[in-house]
Specification:
Largest sheet: 5 strands, mixed
Number of domains: 2
Distance between the termini: 34 Å
CATH architecture of the largest domain: Orthogonal Bundle
Number of helices: 17
Number of strands: 14
Shape: globular
Strand content: 15-25%
CATH superfamily of the largest domain: Cytochrome-c3 Hydrogenase, chain B
Helix content: 40-55%
CATH topology of the largest domain: Cytochrome-c3 Hydrogenase, chain B
Radius of gyration: 22 Å
Length: 505
């Protein structure tokens, strides 16, 4: 039986139709796809206790960026099977977080894994002996090298993480990033509750700056189990997602200006970000869009009055941001700090499985709105990604600038459509069918988000899996600072602006 082939549409897949191979064939078939490099990438790879209680089943979702297809397959691990299986990471580094998580959760080892270290420090990890006190950091044994440890308490009093630098003088030789200090149990909570409203609000908290993106992903998983969609509702969700993208890209443009000491650019961008999220608040009552995205309907339809208000605000914000950008990107002090700093090459991005704006800043055209269109992007919005080649801080800053302007144009086009007057109310009472898998790929402002749910015979949730783009892109930060001065780390870090909580699920 060959791969189960589908697309990024709201339609559940019967699990009995997903091929289940012996691991040897699974390894071979997956290798044949991933070896093509840029065309295929792994959207998700995760384990589920078998519904009959006998062993574990592991599902993989491979995204075909050339055709828009998504390929599904699985393999089963019995409790009497070998404790080790060959590692895909040994050949394809982008698989490392998935295999590390499987080891952490189920104790299965992958022989030949070059980075066999804890991904997180979950309370329910298989090996309780793995603690922060015995984490196997790479060691600097050369007397010309020294180590600099930052964290786990963040200097900005935000979220915890360890950044262990190996340096030669001021020059960074290697950076090892350790996260997972607050494994919050989000996936477990999503699995254990059958309350759809609670699941939606949990999705909004996966990464607070991506509340709209993750809530929309959950709702599309729920709607996928029912095979349900509404074009007018999809259009309004696209407005919310692009508003979120505008706000965060403007905020990060300002933060990058702050790290270079360009205060005028900082305050201008922060003010515009505030105008953007205040516009979202006028729409739904919350600046981050919480409460706006709900399954099967909405309680905040875009009335003609709201459309007029939002269109006026977005037009003004776009004009002001374009003017601010012209000042920022012609400032010699800013350009001197951004250009040729923190470069990651296109080939490196492919190898680590980078997604979203980080990948696009290095010439990798990876954008779910384009490669695997969903919702309004499949019908209403013809999206063409912004792609730059340099892969440095300048490219990441400029890409944010251009994407925010592009998002404003998309919002204005969507607001200009004829309003829908009878959008449905949310529905939290629908049961999920048994023995099915529902998934969705969406494009958050950081990049590709993937949610998937697997149900058992009675519709009970066996697993709910979440992938935030930060899972892949944290490693890009490690690559960006190799060979740079340690003083370059803050601006490199801000140019990615990755999520701790999106990683620490």
């Amino acid at each position: 039986m060959d791969w189960y082939v589908t697309k990024n549409i709201r339609r559940a897949v019967p699990t009995e139709e997903i091929p289940c191979w012996p691991y040897a064939r699974f390894y071979t078939e997956t290798t044949e796809k991933l070896i093509e490099g840029e065309r295929y990438h792994c959207a998700l790879y995760f384990g589920v206790p078998a519904a009959d209680g006998r062993g574990l089943i592991f599902y993989v979702l491979l995204a075909d960026d050339a055709t828009g297809e998504v390929l599904l397959a699985s393999w089963k691990y019995g409790y009497y099977d070998e404790e080790e299986v060959p590692s895909l990471t040994a050949r394809f580094p982008a698989m490392h977080p998935f295999e590390r998580e499987i080891t952490e959760q189920f104790g299965i080892r992958f022989s030949g894994h070059p980075f066999d270290k804890p991904l997180r420090f979950a309370q329910d990890r298989a090996d309780r002996g793995l603690t922060l006190n015995n984490y196997p950091f790479w060691r600097a044994d050369d007397p010309s090298l020294h180590e600099v440890n930052v964290g786990p308490i963040h200097a900005g009093i935000i979220e915890p993480g360890v950044f262990r630098f190996v340096c030669n003088g001021e020059r960074i030789v290697h950076l090892e990033i350790v996260l997972g200090f607050q494994h919050r149990g989000v996936e477990r909570l999503m699995r254990e509750t059958g309350n759809r409203l609670r699941q939606t609000t949990l999705a909004e908290t996966i990464a607070g700056d991506s509340a709209v993106s993750h809530a929309a992903a959950f709702c599309q998983v729920a709607e996928g189990f029912a095979g349900w969609r509404c074009g007018a509702l999809d259009a309004e969700r696209a407005v919310a997602a692009e508003m979120e993208r505008m706000a965060m890209h403007m905020a990060d443009t300002g933060a990058l200006c702050m790290d270079t000491g360009y205060q005028l650019g900082q305050v201008a961008c922060e003010a515009l970000r505030t105008m953007t999220i205040n516009t979202t608040q006028r729409w739904c009552g919350n600046r981050f869009g919480k409460g706006l995205i709900r399954p099967f309907g909405t309680r905040f339809p875009l009335t003609p009055e709201k459309r007029e208000l939002m269109a006026g605000n977005v037009t003004d914000i776009r004009r002001r941001y374009e003017e601010a950008g012209q000042d920022i990107f012609t400032s010699p002090s800013v350009l001197a700090r951004f250009e040729d700093c923190g470069t990651v090459t296109r080939q490196q991005m492919i190898r680590i499985g980078a997604v979203g704006m980080a990948a696009r800043s290095a010439g990798l055209k990876r954008d779910v709105r384009y490669t695997h269109p969903y919702g309004a992007y499949a019908e209403t919005v013809e999206h063409n990604p912004v792609v730059l080649e340099q892969g440095d801080v300048m490219a990441r800053a400029m890409l944010r600038y251009r994407e925010a302007l592009q998002s404003a144009d998309s919002v204005l086009a969507l607001l200009g459509r004829e309003p829908e007057t009878d959008l449905p109310e949310p529905d939290f009472g629908r049961r999920w069918p048994g023995n099915a898998l529902s998934f969705v790929l969406t494009e958050g402002w950081r990049g590709e988000i993937c949610h998937a749910a697997v149900t058992g015979p009675d519709g009970e949730v066996l697993a709910y899996k979440i992938k935030d783009p930060s899972l892949h892109n944290w490693y890009a930060l490690s690559l960006a600072v190799r060979g740079a001065g340690i003083s370059d780390f803050p601006v490199c870090n801000k140019s990615f602006d990755l999520s701790y909580c999106g990683h620490d699920l």
